Amino acid sequence: MKKLTKNLMSLVSATAMSVAMVGSSMPAVINQTESAIAVDTNNDDWLHAEGSRLYDMNGNEVWLTGANWFGLNCIEYSPHYLYAGDIDDMLQEVADRGMNVIRFPISTELILSWMNGTPYQISSGGMQAVYNPPVDQDDGNGGVIKAGTYGNLNKDFVESDGKTLITSDKGFDIILDKCKKYGIKAFIDIHSPHADNSGHNYNLWYGKETADGTMVTTDIWIDTLVWVADKYKNNDTLIGYDLKNEPHGKGQEGDKAAKWDGSTDENNWAYAATKCADAILEVNPNALIFIEGVEQSLSGAQAGDYWGIEDRMVNSPYIGAWWGGNFRGAREYPIQPKNGTSQIVYSPHDYGPSVYAQTWFDKDFTTQTLLEDYWYDTWAYLNAEDIAPELIGEWGGHMDEAENQKWMELLRDYMIEHHINHTFWCLNTNSGDTGGLWANISCGQQAGSTQITWEEKKYALMEKALWQTQKTGKYIGLDHQIPLGNNGLSLNEFYTSYASTEGSNLDGGTIVSGGKPVEGSAPAQTTTTTQKTAKSTTTTTSGTATTTTSGTIITTTSVTLIGGGTTSTKLNPSGYIVGDANCDNAVNIADATAIIQHLGNKDKYALSEQGLKNADCCNVGDGVTGLDALAIQRLEAKQITKLPDVSE
């Protein structure tokens, strides 16, 4: 932020891969054997979009409400203020204060160093980390000085000598592990092509050199994001990728500014973002893809106006917005990956008059005037018209007890009333034009000694927009098993014990019945051997063989269903809903997951008798197989329009 004028879905979801590998008649590599150990405990927390809302694998609605923590984008290569506090202490407080997601700005340059096997080392100016002595030592008097006696601060970030900082890639792994520990989810934001504490000022996602002279191109930007998405595809703590922070630039800058149109020009953000989303989703179809806007769009003021034309004082050819805030082009040119829009989240940035005195603040503004003068046509229509979910990636500012504070309250209340996800800018105190939620951080040499002074009035303002139960005020996390902090809830706890009684503040206050908890499983080592045969595939998992053979097609009456999770109660003449494996009167991705889990562990994830009948939705009559799960995923991706499906 800153001052301005401003494939086909995977046959087996990552959720189910920790349970079992399921056979199909898709092409297989002959005699390929793979051993893997699940990276994440359950890998069951991936999210997807339907309309303007986000849901978990069982169709429970979720609300992402958190904050930004910058520093990985800077030349310290770690979140700022780890030079003043301990990571566990700080994340514990973030979780205890109810933030269920953190947006971590980062640079393409830093990820490129990881991908190339030459990861940058965390700067000593960016982190204070010690573990002295590094091992138990003889005190010379027959006693033992325990490791860490003199210093035990951010100890996971030092090498075995107790003082040398580790490389930034290992540091990021540790950060994700600790987010998991406290029930916090994360996503990264490519804040700039190069590592630079002021990199956010650069317009584009390409065109800057790294420290070693490498020019960051569009291809490198995509390659690095695909690499990191592939690396963490089985780690559902990292739930998604914000492709580029605040693409911007004024129209008269031409190809030096980000635009949003139907061209294939390199500076067309819509074209680049779609290419990048496709590439990421090919390696991880479960990741959320956060798409920001641009700064200006063509106004249509006069015939013949074009991108790059000089601005005019009257009838300007351009309509301005905050950097990253302008989605006017998405009406005509929406982001539509090859496999559908179930993972796309639009992510505007919005600020108040303390950051810049925009024209829509010139009056005694209200929610209605903000909608009429700026919000609705610029970004709010996407949510209001049920086109796609939104996450306000940055909002915040100084508490001036005047216009800026008024704006923050209006936006906050609008997000609460309209289920808009958000990450507040920011935790850090060192954001010059907004300040942070932390006023001061200090610590001694031991973990547990960190003292965080919060900007309590600012926190109280944004706290109302954190996802929480309506009566008891318990903060709700996004992990199905791990509660959010000491006094918060896991997603399962909320949907089991609170959703149908007191509900939450989502949509300004809702009570939900019929929530379906997700049952987790422990990590396990799986060995999978796949052999291709003429018309069948045999898959062996943990010693159990399952053979799927394309058999005689049994004709049955088709039931036409709409993909994307739309509920249907239409029955076929035999009295059941084809594809409704979990018997909830809907056909969506949760049914595919139920089938995969059943195939992996029939004792733990048994389908009911009716569910087994419903689930046989591909090559009806051959029983429940991996092809049935694939058929439902194909329906969800709108690659087929009805069930049952017939395998080729």
- Given the helix and strand composition, which structural class is it? alpha/beta
How many DSSP-defined strands? Answer: 23
Query: Could you report the average pLDDT, rounded to the nearest whole number?
Result: 85
- For the CA atoms, what is the radius of gyration? 26 Å
Number of helices: 13
Percent of residues in beta strands: 5-15%
Sequence of strands across the biggest β-sheet: 16-13-12-11-6-5-18-17
- Tell me roughly what share of residues is in helical segments: 10-25%
Give the biggest beta sheet.
8 strands, parallel
- Contiguous uncertain segments of 5+ residues: 1-40, 521-574
Distance between the termini: 50 Å
Shape: globular
Structure, explained:
The protein is of the alpha/beta class and 648 residues long. It contains 13 helices and 23 strands. Strand 19 (438-442) and strand 20 (451-454) form a beta hairpin.
Task: Itemize the secondary structure elements and their pairings.
Elements: H1 14-17, E1 32-37, E2 48-50, E3 53-55, E4 61-62, E5 65-68, H2 87-96, E6 101-107, H3 108-115, E7 130-132, E8 137-138, E9 144-145, E10 151-153, H4 168-181, E11 185-192, H5 218-231, E12 238-242, H6 269-283, E13 288-291, E14 297-298, E15 318-319, E16 344-346, H7 367-384, E17 391-392, H8 403-417, E18 421-424, E19 438-442, E20 451-454, H9 456-463, H10 491-498, E21 525-532, E22 536-541, E23 544-549, H11 589-600, H12 609-615, H13 626-636
Parallel strand pairs: 5-6, 5-18, 6-11, 11-12, 12-13, 13-16, 17-18
Antiparallel strand pairs: 1-21, 2-3, 3-4, 7-10, 8-9, 14-15, 19-20, 21-22, 22-23
Helix pairs in contact: 3-5, 5-6, 11-13
